[in-house]
Amino acid sequence: MALVLALFGSLNPNYPSWDNIQVIAQAVTITGLLAVVQTVVIICGAPDISVGSQAGLAAATSAMVFTATSSSAVLGIGAAIAVGALVGLLNGAVIVYGRVNATIATLAGLAAYKGAAQLVSNGRAQGYVLNDVVFVFLGRGKIAGLPVMVWLLILVAAAIHVLLKYTDIGRILYAVGGNDTAARLAGLNLNKYLLAVYALSGMVAAVAGILLTARTGSGQR
User: Fold this and answer.
1) Residues 93-100: contacts with CB within 8 Å, 24+ apart?
2) Where are the domains of the chain?
3) Are the CB atoms for 99 and 81 separated by under 8 Å?
4) Rounded to whole angstroms, how far apart are CA atoms 196 and 212?
5) What pTM, to 2 d.p., does this model score?
6) Residues above pLDDT 70, as percent of the chain
7) Which of 7, 9, 36, 128 is 20 to 30 Å apart from 199, CA to CA?
8) Is 24 helix (H, G, I), strand (E, B) or coil?
9) Alpha carbons 130 and 177: distance in angstroms, whole number
10) What are 151-182's pLDDT values in tens digits?
């Protein structure tokens, strides 16, 4: 990143300006959220390829519920997070109880959730949320000079760091990914933790989708 800033800064003196750095930070926030939660899933020894489609489905859901409930941002955001948790649990259930390989299951989810978003949105951007103070604050607001989106990424990353490094749950997740047989023989309920991790993945993907809606002004699949 330092080399990129130095290179483009030499080509354009305005590139390393504080305003431009904030724009870049906002642009990577959504991908950053997905990457952070993907870390937790991978630590458990199973990827979640479908997070991008989950974010798109949550984005469409947030805007559609917002529009259908007479501009209620709370209901729109709540519905998106609920959908994220639901599809995350669905991924986990297919892997845990269906005994399907995690890569195959979430690859199928990638296509399925993208198709679901396409279906519910009729292939078009849904709603308009920039007349709502909550969505405007999430997408364009600032706290202490930093965009709210960046603060949310920092908070989620910090929370997951604490979870993984300083809690018993974090140590258990490392144990599950390191040697699931030993973890099972130690008496750990692997199914419970995998389901929880995939639900967490879906919820954070939904937050990314909500921020996508807030930034673009409508639900983008």
Assistant:
1) 93/195, 95/46, 95/194, 95/198, 96/191, 96/194, 96/195, 97/191
2) 49-120+142-221
3) no
4) 24
5) 0.88
6) 100
7) 128
8) helix
9) 42
10) 999 999 999 999 999 998 989 999 888 888 88
